[in-house]
Amino acid sequence: PFTFETIHPDCDLHGRHFSSPYSGTTEDPVTGTASGVMAAYMKTYGHSDQQVFTIEQGQEMGKDGKVEIAVLEENQEMKIKMTGTAVYAETLILNI
Questions:
Q1: The CATH number of 2-84 is which of 3.10.310.10, 3.40.710.10, 3.40.190.10, 3.40.50.10320?
Q2: pTM of the predicted model, to two decimals?
Q3: Of 63, 64, 74, 90, which residue is least crowded by CB atoms under 10 Å?
């Protein structure tokens, strides 16, 4: 889900990405999967010539995040480029 109502005035969209209950997490605080799709959707159906979108996620989880998504069109294909800043969240040890 996404909305045009944002917490940060410099953002274009506010989104959330809920995970499968079987994945071990309930929500991803910031994800290119959700943000990339939101920008492609806006470019296709949002009736906008905008090519770069700033998208916020994670505020509800206490993990404030932003990504910048560029939507490029080449040969009638959409290409999505994402930039942002990653931060250390936690260490996981997996025994296989």
A1: 3.10.310.10
A2: 0.80
A3: 90
